[in-house]
Amino acid sequence: MKILATIAEMKAAVRAARSQGQTVGFVPTMGFLHEGHLSLVRASKSTFGLTVVSVFVNPTQFGPQEDFKTYPRDLARDAAMLEKEGVDILFNPEAGAMYPPGYGTYVEVQGLQDRLCGASRPGHFRGVCTVVLKLFEIIRPDVAYFGRKDAHQAIVLTRMVRDLNLDVRIDVRPIVREADGLAMSSRNTYLNPAERQAALVLIRSLRAAGTWIAAGERRAAAVVAGIREMIGREPLARIDYVEAVGAADLGPVETIEDGTLIALAVFIGKTRLIDNAVVGPEGKIW
Ligand code: PAF
Predict the structure, then answer these.
(1) Distance 280 CA to ligand 1 centre (A)
(2) What is the CATH number of the domain that holds 79?
(3) Domain end call among 173, 198, 218
(4) Pair (97, 230) in one structural domain
(5) Does residue 115 belong to any structural domain of this protein?
(6) Which residues form the catalytic set?
(7) How many angstroms separate the CA atoms of 149 and 187, rounded?
(8) Ligand 1: residues within 6 Å at CB?
(9) HSE-CB of 100 using CA atoms within 13 angstroms
(10) 115 and 195 belong to one structural domain
(11) Residue 283, pLDDT score
(12) For a substitution probing ligand 1, which of 29, 67, 121 has the most ligand atoms within 8 Å of its CB?
């Protein structure tokens, strides 16, 4: 596996691979990898000749009071994991190269960027879209892989690709969970043992919502209230939001239907975790 740090090297490597007829799969990450990331890597490896993974903790998607400085970083560990998966290129640019002095160009997906996580993290999706567009431009992948744990992010990026006519397809893959149901996240590492246990309230409440919906409950307000009540009973949890929204526009829905996204963000202690479920046929959630 090559580890490339400069944009020029990265562009040249993709150009060389393309000149030999290779197709390119891309997995953008902020590192501190887990099985969720590796599931995206495996999807790319099974389809594309060249798999590129970026590890870049993107400063522009963190708010001033957020965890940019403390976000877990371990490039040696990430590189070892990616090497084992047979990744071709690990791209690890410097922040100063991605955002040189005087940098002033940002991408906004109006309408979608301020909903759900965007409401409590102003500017977050502007930072995500900007860095992802820059990475797409540098790597020019055929397909880019994202996890559905960040469902809102995937919806915003899919809209960006459509709106800007980008030649890349966004492939959104299922949430990968720990054995006890907690959605994998690099931020789980912040949780102490009591918080780790308390964090299970996210999946417990989503699964409970699934049983209410499967039993015929279709009133979004009732489902949201039920989830809020369950989470409210967990002393270490503080709700940021619980919403049932349409997956196309992220607007709140009154009636739960196939495709409704039930999304949560909950602070467990100081750690903000997100999780979600999509309502499928017969009210099953996945
Ligand atoms: O999902 C993430 O890890 C980040 O938001 C992404 C897509 C790598 C952009 O920094």
Answers:
(1) 26
(2) 3.40.50.620
(3) 173
(4) no
(5) yes
(6) 37
(7) 13
(8) 28-30, 58, 61, 128, 131-132, 150, 153
(9) 4
(10) no
(11) 67
(12) 29
Q: Which domain holds residue 98?
A: 2-173
pTM here is: 0.96
Q: Which atom of ligand 1 is nearest to the CA of 28?
A: 8
Q: Identify whether 164 is part of a domain.
A: yes
Minimum-distance ligand 1 atom for the alpha carbon of 157:
7
Q: What's the CA-to-centroid distance between 192 and ligand 1, angstroms?
A: 24
Q: Which residue has the CA at smallest separation from atom 8 of ligand 1?
A: 29
Ligand 1 geometric centre to CA of 149 (Å): 11
Query: Which of 1, 86, 101, 74 lies closest to 38, judged by CA?
Result: 86
Q: Is position 132 within any domain?
A: yes
Per-residue pLDDT reduced to its tens digit, 5-37: 999 999 999 999 999 999 999 999 999 999 999
Q: What is the C-alpha separation between 13 and 7, in angstroms, rounded? A: 10
What residue owns the CA closest to ligand 1's atom 1?
29
What's the pLDDT band for 249 if we cut at 50, 70, 90?
confident
Query: What are 43's two structure tokens?
Result: 């999807």
Q: How far is the CA of 84 from the centre of ligand 1 (A)?
A: 22
**AA letter at 147:** G
Report the number of distinct structural domains present in the chain.
Answer: 2
Q: Which amino acid is present at 102?
A: G
Q: Which of 28, 15, 36 is nearest to 129 (CA)?
A: 28
